[in-house]
Amino acid sequence: MVTTDKKKEDLMKMTMRDLREMVVKLGMPEEDAENFEKKKPLIATINAFRALIAVKVPGQGKGGKENKEEYLSKKERMRAILMKQPKIRIKVPKESAEKVGDIRWIYNKITKRKEQVYFSGAYLPVQINGFKWLVAKGMYQDVPEQVADVIGESEKETMEAGKHFLIDRKDPETGESVRDRLE
To answer: Quick check: 169 and 178 in contact, CB under 8 A?
Structure first.
């Protein structure tokens, strides 16, 4: 605590010109540094840049493939998890006006892996941690267990929604059917 207070005091003693030069050295564009008119916001920015630099990158200094997963984005980690999960065969119903969905797996030469591509019809997108899985409506298909769980939970919530507005419900106070009370 004493060291941070001391650093703040040292920065407060510096001129605006020196502070601007410091923030530019830390990575801020010069034209943005010139927009500061007061010391306190400039000092806060310097401290923020210092904090970013002080944060250690996972696996820093270690080379090799064993640390590859540390560098993957959350979306890519989720994709890897979903691809390893057991697959469950499901069918998502389509609306009467919708056409049967057509989602195909195509090899992408850039990423060097198979990826889902939408061709036609209705589909249900399921997004988990940034990764989107496309589920064609109106046909059976294999999906990862977690995707099936998300779809099942969504269906359950849809079925439960509005039950307290149905005319066939039981009144919670009397226990009688609402329909009987209205007739």
So the answer is: yes
Q: Give the C-alpha separation, 102 to 94, whole Å.
A: 12
What's the pLDDT tens digit per position in 149-167?
999 999 888 888 877 777 7
Model confidence, pTM:
0.54
Give exposure, 3-21, as e/b (b: 16+ Cβ within 10 Å): eeeeeeeebeebeeeebbe
What does the block give as tokens for 128?
Answer: 């988990």
Per residue in 105-143, pLDDT (tens digit) is: 999 898 889 999 999 999 999 999 889 999 999 999 999
| Contact (CB, 8 A) for 101 and 121 | yes
Let me know how long the chain is: 183
Q: Which helix (H) or strand (E) holds 47?
A: helix 39-54
